[in-house]
Amino acid sequence: MPLMMAQDTRLALGDQGARCESRSLLLNHFSEADDRPPAQLAYLEQVAAIPPLPHKQTAWWEFLLHGLAPAAEWLLFGQLKARLMIHDGPASRQYAPLAMDHLTGLPIIPGSTLKGCARRLALQELREVADPAARMAQLCDLAMVFGWIEADWLVRPASWNDGQWLAQRPDLAWACGEADWESIGRQAREELHRRLGLAWSETNAFSFGGLVNFLPGYPLPEAFWPMPHPDLEVEVALNHHPAAYRERALHRHEAAGLDAPNRAIPDLEDPRRDLSLAVAPGLLFVFPLLPAAQGAEWAARKAQAWLRSGLEVLGLGARTQAGYGWFDCADALQHKCREQYAATGEREREQRRLEIEVEARRRKEEEQKRQALERQQMLEQMNETQQEDFHLSLLTEDQFRSRVENFNRSLNKKEQLAVIRALRGPRLQFWEDLKVKCQKGGHWAQVEQAVRAMAKKANFGKMP
What distance in Å separates the CA atoms of residue 177 and residue 326, rounded to the nearest whole number? Predict the structure, then answer.
């Protein structure tokens, strides 16, 4: 069955979108109308076969090298070792939209996802700390790194039952232990106020964004690290009891004597294939974690360590319990990639500097040609006197001084008259300074006398 699209779009892209070069456009706007698994599988395989456009990948790498230009220590590199399923929205049909750049179709990992992974690992470590002083210090470090909102310090009201508390309980309370949470939370807030230089007040509730900026993770360019082809794969999962997962009773349950949908269900249903897209293993991602303020380097190092452990232990995205979404962030990989990043950055910065110099020379030459053409056009419209005045106006201060100094030596009459007009007009200040010098006698006094004599002879009147 043809994809669902308008007639003019169909003429441009073809019935099945065969001429569509953007897989994000095909996936997010032109879905397969046939719900049967074979049609859905063919559609997703078509999307996965379209390579991502390189624009965003190249632009992000250029921005990282020349725009942000962070030190190599603020970059964490991780190679995907299993399929990755990170979705950026609810499933509209049988599959959820994959997190990718909407322009180029490049798989990405949002910064919020990375921050959540690092925070989960930090919370687990906090839960395992037994010493009260060490636990308090780590709780404050965690809060400074990731930030907080007012609800993160919620204390259980006396009127709440267990269900209400479990629904609203902050994860910090879970990590610190609920028995001592009220006192621990209060002491932590006092310490955080002290670290931020704020006066402590029980009612001074505020939010804090954290000391580390978690930027999105992008795959490295092909020139830096080879990408798998294709970089997307179709993921197939069998749902053996679709009716049970939908939590509604069907006639088959009733026929089997089941009076409630949440009871054990025998194998009476046909398995259903759930299809989705996943990122193929092998991609190398770079995760920039930058200090958000001066003096926050310690926080960026802690965040990087937590994220590194989180990627290797917890993984990202869906189905991590089945082995999906885990990364290799070994020391050898960090050392190799950071060295290559530094070398590439230095080489590209030098190349960029040379390109900027060449471009600057080209623009300067073009500007000189343009100005020369304008001067030529202006000169063609001037009489002889105006041309002499124009040429004189282009001289620098030192060049004009040399011209005046040789007034009675090498200048012809036209050039002398042009100098006199300049001294009476735009170069009047030079004439005033010259009269001061003449009081000492010497060559400049002779120049002054020659200028006055020529001005009188040419009927310019008395010099100022």
Answer: 29
Q: Is the pTM of this model over 0.85?
A: no
Closest CA to 454 of 413, 394, 395: 413
Partners of residue 80 on adjacent β-strands? 327
Spatial contact of 205 and 281, defined as CB atoms under 8 Å apart: no
Separation of alpha carbons 41 and 236, rounded Å: 9
CA distances from 253 to 240, 256, 268, 270, 332 (A): 14, 5, 8, 13, 56
Q: Is the pLDDT score of 350 beyond 60?
A: yes
- Which range has the top average pLDDT, 49-53, 285-289, 390-394? 285-289
Average confidence (pLDDT) over 338-351: 82
Question: How many Å apart are CA 276 and CA 88, to the nearest integer?
Answer: 13
Cα(91)–Cα(274) distance, integer angstroms = 11
pLDDT digits (tens, 9 = 90+) for 276-325: 889 999 999 999 999 999 999 999 999 999 999 999 999 998 888 888 99
Mean pLDDT score of the chain: 84
Quote the distance between the C-alpha of residue 221 and its chain's center. 15
